[in-house]
Amino acid sequence: MQLFDFTHFRALRSACKNESPRWCLIVVCLTATLVTANALAFVLLTNSDTNVGYAVVSKKWALASSDKTQSDVLIVGDSSGDQGIDPEAFESLSGLTALNLCTFGDLLTVDDLWLLERRILEGAAPKHVIMIHVYDMWHRVDPNLAALRQAPLSWSQWDQHTEIIPLGTAWKLRVLLDRYVPLLSRRDSLRQILLRGGLMQPETTFTPRGFRPVSKVNQERTRKDRTQHLAFLGANTFHPSAVNEAALERVLSLCEEHSIQFWLFNSPVEAELARSPLFRDYHREVIDWLEEQVRDFPNATVNRELYTVSIEHCERVDHIDTTAASEYTAFVSERVFSQSPTDRLPAK
To answer: Residue 192's domain is classified under what CATH number?
Structure first.
């Protein structure tokens, strides 16, 4: 007696065998379509990336790894330093070579630390580190992880960096996804490119030493930016974040370990914002806290001075044009080398 009737199962298996070539063709076509679309996404992003932050991170990390010369001065920090310190002008003033690896504020001090570590690992430890940050970076809690993953490091190179944030297998797999599957990881940027009509040359330009000059000012945006800053200052008191404190402490330890002089400057600030009592009080608390952090590191200095800029030279309250950048560069150079004059070389 036959307990089970396998007739229907045999018929189904036979049908699957007959259909398998069609399914294989469908799978091959879908795979080829996805690979082609992903390749086109690479082309679009390479030629017309709308995400300036990602472009800055990629450029600065590539420069950190490819420039094998030992620059005397390494400049790290946020976009205020990216657009505010001209290494070529710095060299003409001090006689010391400089490399500007500033990125942007939402990477906090994590990026500063890793870029310094990368230069040390590359055998290009500087004599001086100049860190430049806007006053309202120090309270920020969560770094922009997607932007940090744009650093062009290999799987093993991530293991060489301080684990301020988790850098395990999950992080590395997400790095691979971001790097090789932009169709998914960069879909917002791709959508913006397509909406604006396709390929355009990116507006972000850099000098060979990492400076990103700004030629156009925007007074209207600066006024709106000032209003937002005043609203923030009116609603908040200063509380430093743990991630910034941990990364800064590690930077200071590395500088002490490698006999590097460390200097910390506030970003340039639009003059009217700088005159606000709200800003003055908040800035004083930030500087007091920073001086407390460097107290046990004799090779570290925090500059308390504010460098203010008229709105005619501002793109935002902490972003300045090339005219103001040359003056801010001179301001930083003068403060650094007035306290370490033996390092100054004849100006070129």
So the answer is: 3.40.50.1110
